[in-house]
Specification:
4 domains; binds phosphoenolpyruvate; binds magnesium ion; Dna Ligase, domain 1; D-amino Acid Aminotransferase, Chain A, domain 1; Glucose Oxidase, domain 1
Length: about 750
């Protein structure tokens, strides 16, 4: 039999009809109100792959290393091609369509849901991993069944199966075909408290079809009923902005706005709650354990769409596993969903807001956790609203890492798969020190802001070596100044331009040169004013073309094979003096306004040629290099090796950009999470270049500094102070610790000389 009706199956038939099918059959058998349905059995999937002979090729294709994301993607694509590209044998097709014909005269809209044989088993909540199609009608049914089969091999499914130790060959998939309930209201229900197991029945309810609630796209009303007294303990009525509905003709489901009067209205009345409680108790009793139930109400009748055991209740009151459908969640150490690099310290909890390239940023609400491939400059306003940031890509010096640190927002970068593993609305807790992402909310005590996480001494230690601070976004100036730093060791100018969301060339085209200059003057002035008279080292524009590409005007950026090795920093400025001249004009104006604490720093120079050309342009722009403090970043091995001739050209300072110096010395792309473990600023080769450069600079009376991320690391601080560096510039959150570390090393040096 390729197909079985629900009333022909029960809970022992998981092998034939999968977890979902068995559970629905069981419920129907127990007299619970389940919409009519049949199941295309797991055996049908088996005979499809075996009869058509694609089975071996399929299992070979998905036998990959789950941590190799490109191999995983290729495996999924090949599995899909094999399954979708192979015709369904005639007798199978006919049997499925004939059975469908017996469901409501063959005109029903049906939901087609995968029901994997390893799914919904206790301790293995595969929930949500396989495909569901709503509002399918006759002609599409066979295709949709095949798509469900193919969904057994999504990247996520392959990945989880490998992790949970399930063999791909032993996991089959059945497909449930069920009449759609055109729900007026729907939601989920936990028949006991999902983490403590207490006798409380918790119902979540929203308007329209339930898919939006299950996917966490709308915030539902919440009702808690005491199961002993049957009293309603609490009602929280949510502001329900959107709902999922079916268009009558096409059957397509769409999200629409909830009509005004219903937005803040309570979804369930007393009778409906009573029916749900009755059904909930009946289901729990039937199974002998607490259940997580999806339900819907149509024309006053309550239907059960599915039920599964709650896998989150602690057996012994200890740690909990993850909750499938949201609800009252609580984080523990066991439920780490993903790990990445802890890029900005602190612990934050919130609802996931996945931000794709084309998404509107207003979907990020106050306190949400942004989950994205990589942040872009136009996300900064949303990043300020967020309680935390998670990215798939990037390293410790990526845009996400730098900006989150300055905003004081905890961040985990380089998680590889957060955007595909997490879903909107899911409650998570991220730890920006450890780099973990966990299910649920942190305990209140854990939810400290960055400042509280790092115990800070109120006393600023006096140090001979200056301790400065890095600033990328002018909005962080106040926080940065409050650290008591001796100045700004790096102000990245590109963030002022990037935040306009236009490339420099596009900005000038649209608004004119003066407006562009004004943009820079204002950004720098904010910071220079905040720190005056302490020095502020402003770096001229340095963004790789791939960062510019995401902006308006980005289409005119050169398409580079490796932007990190390409058109950026001083190279671009010297190639486009017509644009660079505006930056220099901004400096001239700032000096004219009295900001003599502003210093000019040139990024990514290699040799004296770069320096002399830039110096000439400064002079052309009426900036007197002998009067102003200016210098270079040492970010390439070439610049470290050629520092003496640059000293001869008149630079006042050299500042180690260890993010780039490490990348170019070790040939490790700093933005590539894949090789993040090889990105080591303390590598002896990097330290040797730094040590030599400090020595040359001391001989030539050139001040030295560090403004790369490594300046915030204690071991690097020890090394640099011992080598005799003039100043260290750290991230905002690290300034106080660095001050103390510098003090400690300096005292030790003094002690060593007297001993
Ligand atoms: C560096 O390379 O260390 C640096 C500070 O510059 P950026 O990170 O902006 O390239
Ligand atoms: Mg750099």
């Amino acid at each position: 039999m390729a197909v079985l009706w629900l009333d022909e199956v029960g809970k022992d038939d998981i092998d034939a009809v999968g977890g979902k099918g068995a559970s629905l059959g069981e419920l129907a058998g127990a007299g619970l109100p389940v919409p009519p349905a049949f199941v295309v059995t797991a055996g049908t999937y088996r005979s499809f792959i075996e009869e058509t002979g694609i089975d071996e090729a399929l299992f070979d294709a998905v036998d990959v290393d789950p941590d190799d994301s490109s191999a995983l993607a290729a495996a999924t694509a090949e599995a899909e091609d094999l399954i979708l590209g192979t015709e369904m044998p005639d007798e199978l097709r006919e049997e499925i369509l004939e059975t469908y014909g017996n469901l409501d005269d063959g005109e029903a809209f049906v939901a087609v849901r995968s029901s994997a044989t390893a799914e919904d088993l206790p301790d293995a909540s595969f929930a949500g991993q396989q495909e569901t199609f709503l509002n399918v009608t006759g002609e599409n049914l066979v295709q949709r069944v095949k798509e469900c089969w193919a969904s057994l091999f999504t990247q996520r499914a392959i990945y989880y199966r490998e992790q949970q130790g399930f063999d791909h060959r032993s996991v089959d998939i059945a497909v449930v075909v069920q009449r759609m309930v055109d729900a007026e209201k729907s939601g989920v229900m936990f028949t006991s408290h999902p983490s403590t197991g207490a006798p409380e029945l918790i119902v979540e309810a929203a308007w329209g079809l339930g898919e939006a609630v299950v996917a966490g796209e709308v915030s539902p009303d919440n009702y808690v009923v005491d199961r002993d007294s049957h009293e309603l303990d609490s009602v929280t009525v949510a502001d329900k902005k959107t709902m999922c509905v079916k268009e009558p003709e096409t059957g397509e489901t769409t999200m629409v706005d909830v009509p005004g009067e219903k937005r803040e209205a309570q979804v369930l009345d007393e009778d409906e709650l009573d029916s749900l409680v009755e059904i909930g108790e009946q289901v729990e009793e039937h199974y002998g354990e607490p259940q997580d139930v999806e339900w819907a109400i149509f024309e006053g009748d309550v239907y059960m769409l599915q039920s599964r055991p709650i896998t989150t209740i602690a057996d012994d009151g200890g740690e909990q596993a993850s909750v499938a459908n949201g609800g009252d969640e609580s984080a523990s150490n066991d439920d780490v969903l993903l790990t990445g690099l802890g890029a900005s310290p602190g612990i934050a909890s919130g609802a996931v807001a996945i931000v794709g390239k084309l998404d509107q940023l207003d979907k990020v609400g106050e306190g949400d956790v942004i989950v994205t491939e990589m942040t872009t400059p136009d996300m900064v306003p949303a990043m300020k609203r967020a309680s935390g940031i998670v990215t798939d890509e990037g390293g410790m010096t990526s845009h996400a890492a730098i900006v989150s640190r300055e905003l004081g927002v905890p961040a985990v970068v380089g998680s590889q798969s957060a955007t595909s593993t997490l879903s909107d609305g899911r409650q998570i807790t991220i730890d920006g020190d450890k780099g973990t992402i966990r299910e649920g909310e942190a305990d209140d005590g854990e939810r400290d802001a960055v400042e509280e996480v790092r115990p800070q001494s109120p006393v600023k230690p006096m140090t001979a070596t200056e301790v400065k601070v890095n600033v990328s976004i002018p909005e962080a100036a106040e926080r940065a100044a409050a650290t008591g730093a001796d100045g700004v060791g790096l102000l990245r100018m590109e963030h002022m331009i990037l935040s306009t969301n236009k490339t420099p060339e596009k900005y000038i085209d649209d608004h004119g040169e003066d407006a562009y200059i004004e943009e820079i003057v204002e950004g720098v002035r904010n910071v220079a004013e905040e720190f005056y008279p302490r020095p502020v080292r402003v770096r001229t524009l340095d963004a790789p073309t791939d960062e510019f590409r995401q902006l308006e005007g980005g289409e005119s950026e050169p398409d580079e094979h490796n932007p990190m090795l390409g058109y950026r920093g001083i190279r671009r400025s010297l190639d486009r003096p017509d644009v660079f001249v505006h930056e220099l004009e901004a400096f001239r104006q700032l000096y004219g306004m009295g900001y003599d604490n502003v210093e000019i720093m040139l990024p990514l120079v290699n040799d004296v040629e770069d320096v002399l050309q830039a110096k000439n342009l400064m002079q052309d722009a009426s900036i007197d290099p002998d009067k102003r403090s200016w210098g270079v970043m040492v970010e390439t091995p070439a610049s470290a090796l050629r520092i003496e001739e640059m000293a001869d050209a008149g630079i006042d300072f050299a500042s180690f950009g260890t993010n780039d110096l490490t990348q170019y010395t070790l040939a490790v792309d700093r933005n590539n999470g894949q090789v993040a473990d090889r990105f080591d600023e303390l590598h002896p080769a990097v330290l040797e270049l730094i040590g030599q450069t400090i020595e040359s600079c001391r001989e030539n009376d050139v001040a030295t500094s560090i403004c790369g991320q490594a300046g915030s690391k204690p071991q690097m601080v020890q090394f640099l102070v011992n080598e005799g560096i003039s100043s260290i510039s750290a991230n905002i959150d690290a300034v106080r610790d660095v001050q103390h570390e510098v003090k400690r090393v300096e005292q030790k040096l003094v002690l060593d000389t007297v001993r």
